[in-house]
TrEMBL record:
Compositionally biased region (Basic and acidic residues): 276-287
Organism whose genome encodes this protein: Natronobacterium gregoryi (strain ATCC 43098 / DSM 3393 / CCM 3738 / CIP 104747 / IAM 13177 / JCM 8860 / NBRC 102187 / NCIMB 2189 / SP2)
Residue ranges of the region described as Disordered: 211-363
Keyword field: Coiled coil
One Pfam family from the record: DUF7115
Residue ranges of domain DUF7115 in the record: 1-108
Name by which UniProt lists this protein: DUF7115 domain-containing protein
Coiled coil: 368-395
């Protein structure tokens, strides 16, 4: 895969030690002295290369849901930052951290970085010749601890239900390192393999037998109490988490519902039989029937085919009238007839003729064609905008 011309000119005579794709055409290049972040030409930025020296005093990561920010602090230059997609964090951290170890002369020429692990605030780096350990908010700074394989006198593992303790004895002093069980097996195997290759042995028993023969240290209690054991005082698996206050739901009790004012709307049951009077709820009392109601009932008894007495009572209750009930129903019947009959001026043949004329109107057809053309143009514009938005989202996810 070819290297972009702008990157090649920035590299000069340096060789690329690692190369990581950041999505799209963006890439990250690592050399022995610096890290180069290449951004391809896009909607948000032009083609560019940013370089970060490996002689940083501190490396900190700020991980988000979509992006991870790398912050490098220098004694003279100040602080420099670059952002990558969160999915590329581990792939980028390993070569960058290896370059920083080399830039700060922690690792020697020819020494390779095997693997990098992060357990909460604990960072472990296995190289071909040592184990580097750092505890704190930063991934690495000058407060690191290193255990060279030439000083190891024993290696053991203590399995637990949640975490596994790696007991690396250095010059007779045990250093305990906790690792979650999900990653403990991988850490165990890589550390064993690195030590096996360093001492040219094939098993843990051979390793402990070989390094135990070289153990030469005072058995006094003073030397034992002076062990630099950070495992007992610092738990790398613990992480600070802010307590969340529980939100009390707003519950309305039955007593609150009971204390609400009763409704004052009248309720009637027009379908109830043998109910002469309309009863109401709340503070309203029963109302005596009016003279018109009694007259209506009398007329209803004489002429049962006209209407039911219940309907007349409801009509009188909501629309009091001083006319005879028979006249009221005659007027309503006429009103209904007038509403249901079509207007005298309506001409079906004329309406059909107008509709046919409308359909064949050339001016209307021309307007419809113009609207269709406008809709097609708008659809094309929307498609172009959608493609541009998708490209912008892709570039934002790449950390631009």
């Amino acid at each position: 895969m070819s290297v972009p011309g702008i990157v090649q000119s920035t590299l000069g005579s340096e060789e690329i030690a690692a190369r990581v794709s950041l999505g799209g055409d963006d890439e990250l290049f690592v050399t022995s002295t610096r890290t180069l972040v290449y951004r391809a030409d896009g909607l948000l930025s032009d083609e560019s290369v940013e370089e970060y020296s490996h002689d940083a005093d501190r490396l900190t990561l700020s991980e988000g849901r979509r992006k991870t920010k790398f912050t490098l602090e220098y004694s003279l230059e100040g602080t420099q930052k670059f952002t990558i997609p969160s999915s590329k964090t581990d792939a980028v951290l390993h070569p960058v951290l290896a370059g920083i170890l080399n830039g700060n002369e922690i690792t020697e020429p020819g020494e390779t970085v095997v693997q990098t692990y992060r357990f909460s605030e604990l960072t472990l780096i296995i190289t071909s010749e040592r184990l580097v350990k750092h505890i704190g908010g930063a991934v690495w700074d000058e407060d690191y601890q290193e255990y060279h394989f030439s000083d190891v006198t024993e290696l053991a593992f203590e399995d637990g239900s949640v975490a596994t303790q790696i007991v690396l004895t250095v010059d007779g002093r045990p250093q305990r390192i906790k690792a979650p069980n999900e990653q403990a097996n991988d850490l165990r195997e890589r550390l064993k393999r690195a030590l096996f290759d360093y001492y040219d042995v094939d098993s843990l028993e051979e390793l402990n037998e070989l390094v135990g023969e070289n153990e030469d240290w005072d058995d006094g209690s003073e030397d034992r109490t002076a062990s630099m054991d950070f495992g007992d005082s610092v738990d790398p698996l613990s992480s600070d988490s802010s307590e969340q206050d529980a939100v009390e739901p707003d519950v309305t009790t039955a007593e609150d519902d009971a204390s609400a004012e009763p409704t004052t709307e009248s309720t009637t049951d027009p379908l109830a039989a043998d109910n002469a009077d309309v009863k109401t709820t709340g503070d309203r009392s029963e109302q005596p029937r009016s003279t018109t109601q009694r007259r209506t009932q009398t007329d209803s008894q004489q002429q049962p085919e006209r209407t039911e007495s219940r309907t007349e009572e409801i009509d009188d209750e909501f629309e009091p009238a001083t006319v005879e009930t028979a006249n009221v129903f005659d007027a309503e019947s006429k009103d209904i007839d007038s509403r249901t009959q079509p207007p005298a001026t309506a001409d079906p043949d004329s309406s059909a003729s107008d509709a046919e004329t409308t359909k064949t109107d050339p001016e209307l057809l021309e307007r419809i064609d113009a609207l269709e053309d406008a809709v097609e143009r708008q659809s094309d514009v929307i498609d172009e905008q959608r493609q541009m938005i998708e490209q912008l989202i892709a570039e934002l996810r790449q950390g631009r």
